[in-house]
Write a structure and sequence with these properties.
Belongs to the isocitrate and isopropylmalate dehydrogenases family. LeuB type 1 subfamily. This protein is α/β, with parallel strands linked by helices. The protein folds into two domains: about 190 residues, Isopropylmalate Dehydrogenase (3-Layer(aba) Sandwich), CATH 3.40.718.10; about 130 residues, Isopropylmalate Dehydrogenase, CATH 3.40.718. It has 14 helices and 14 strands. The relative contact order is 0.17. Bound molecules: nicotinamide-adenine-dinucleotide, 3-isopropylmalic acid and magnesium ion.
């Protein structure tokens, strides 16, 4: 089983190294064996090869059984004109591999209720998934660009969806809801946007094939409030690329920290990409401060969805919960009475827990 490891920039390599450690612990003592090969992406690749997604990286990723991704980009490279930086390595990879369904599970670990800045009563029992469309929307719509008109700088992007693009991610949402609590909330801005009106029409059409799943529609601005006010009312949220990006970062706080949120980007056929929802966190990079649990939980999703190793995935998740139950915390989820660990030590603790659980 081949895993392409694309660690990227900032804390990407730090947290990915801990996920690799956890995978090695799964392999130990006659466990399943993984062939893990690293390749550059993001600023690291741009500085070395003049391209944030070198052809060799794209090819290796496409041929792998699964991709473990860290984080890409820095504040400096973010602002370089797209043509000067070769676009965004991660966005290009998602598009090339047609990874349209991005699952971002938001689970409030009972062990972490005291670490959240939100009240225990507000987040207890939260278990939802943000399913974000990942290969279309304003991220990829054309025309896009910048220019000067009447002496004024101006810039434009295009929000665009086809019915096929909406239908396939909606189906993925209904299928996911069927395996959960059978509630699907489609999130749009249909009071303003044509793309959202199409989104809602297609949601209603696809719903006819899933009479056992309850469909409701909510506006994205209201959902950003309801997610904080009544998060237990959500099971599966299906939404477009830009709305999903924003809502999932907000929802991360229901778990205690963005450092707890994993994700799986899938297309139902080929290779899947697994990455923490957070970015390269330049403010804490290189300081052994980053929480590696989002990356480790992403490796668990990789085992489950791409390699079909359910028992091993569940074991990795159990090891994470055990370490939390034993009171170990990184700084972002620290609480009174807990033991503070750095990135490496947290990775070691999870790897040890995996080995112990395997017996
Ligand atoms: N998937 C990706 O590759 C990805 C995702 C988001 C942002 N980015 C890029 O990362 C850079 C930084 O972006 P940003 O600051 O908006 O978002 P960020 O997620 O990198 O950081 C936001 C805040 O959360 C904290 N944080 C993030 N991950 C953490 C972790 N594992 N443990 C503890 N704290 C953590 C950071 O320290 C920071 O204070 C930018 O260049 C951005 O474009 C990349
Ligand atoms: C780094 C950036 C392009 C990316 C996105 O906007 O998709 C990130 O914020 C994410 O959530 O994966
Ligand atoms: Mg984001």
């Amino acid at each position: 089983m081949k895993i392409a490891v694309l660690a990227g920039d900032g804390i990407g390599p730090e947290v990915t190294a801990q996920a690799v450690k956890a995978l090695r612990a799964i392999s130990a003592n006659n466990g399943p064996q993984f062939e893990m090969a690293e390749a550059p992406i993001g600023d690291a690749a741009f500085n070395q090869h003049g391209d944030p997604l070198p052809p060799s990286t794209a090819e290796m990723a496409a041929k792998a059984d699964a991709i473990l991704f860290g984080a890409a980009g820095t504040y400096e490279s973010d602002l370089r004109p797209a043509e000067q930086r070769g676009g965004h390595g991660l966005l290009r990879l998602r598009k090339q591999l047609d990874l349209y369904a991005n699952f971002r599970p938001v689970f409030a670990f009972p062990e972490l209720l005291g670490a959240s800045s939100l009240k225990r009563e507000a987040i207890e029992g939260v278990d939802l998934v943000v399913l974000r469309e990942l290969t279309s929307d304003i991220y990829f719509g054309t025309p896009r660009g910048r220019g000067v008109e009447n002496g004024q700088r101006h810039a434009w992007n295009t929000m665009r969806y086809t019915e096929a693009e909406v239908a396939r991610v909606m189906r993925a949402g209904f299928e996911a809801a069927r395996k959960r609590r059978r509630q699907l909330c489609s999130v749009d801005k249909a009071n303003v946007l044509e793309t959202s009106q199409l989104w809602r029409e297609v949601a209603i059409e696809v719903a006819r094939d899933y009479p056992d799943v309850e469909l409701r529609h909510e506006y994205v601005d209201a959902v950003s409030m309801h997610l904080i006010r009544r998060p237990r009312d959500f099971d599966v949220i299906v939404t477009g690329n830009i709305f999903g990006d924003i809502l999932s970062d907000a929802a991360a706080m229901l778990t205690g920290s963005i450092g707890m949120l994993p994700s799986a980007s899938l297309n139902g056929e080929g290779v899947g990409l697994f990455e923490p929802v957070h970015g390269s966190a330049p403010d804490i990079a290189g300081k052994d401060l980053a929480n590696p649990l989002a990356s480790i939980l992403s490796a668990a999703l990789l085992l489950r969805h791409s390699l079909k190793l359910e028992a091993e995935a569940a074991l990795m998740e159990k090891a994470v919960r055990q370490v939390l139950a034993e009171g170990y915390r990184t700084g972002d989820i620290m609480e009174e009475g807990a033991t503070r660990l750095g990135t490496e030590a947290m990775g070691d603790a999870v790897a040890q827990a995996i080995l112990k659980l395997k017996g």
